[in-house]
Amino acid sequence: MLALVVADATKGFSKEEIKKKSRINEKEFRELVKKGYLESVKTRGIVRYRTTEAGREYCIRKANSLKLIKYFRVKQVSDEAFLESLKSSYRSLLKTSPIAPYVKISDLRMKLTSELGISSEEFDRRIIELNNRNPYDIQLHVGSGEPSEGVKTARGVYHYVIIK
Known about the structure:
The chain is an alpha+beta fold.
């Protein structure tokens, strides 16, 4: 679906640009073209691809259904269950962390999202909320790494956490 959003421009984008920005492989790209979600546009001998009307409709349908699923999933996990899972996951990751007592937020996020079935955005929102409520118990720390791997707050991007 991200490929269709990336390619949504009148002039289109090269196949390589679309694949790189949306992180899809050649087979997935060909499938989008085959289904009619992407169409080729030739300009001065250069082939580019853009999203078709069918591709836009597919994106809208998919986005609407994802919102419902996301809302349903979030409602299932109580604050107490989230906090308990957060502490448990932190303790297990702490054993293998090379810079203990710090644990990478990206590792913690990956473990909790798969364990609880919540989205990454929901994880980020909740950990920021817990930090704001009690910064001593949930301590966020800066570090090096991709901004997408950390938690973005008004004060910056944090990559590590200590949980007391």
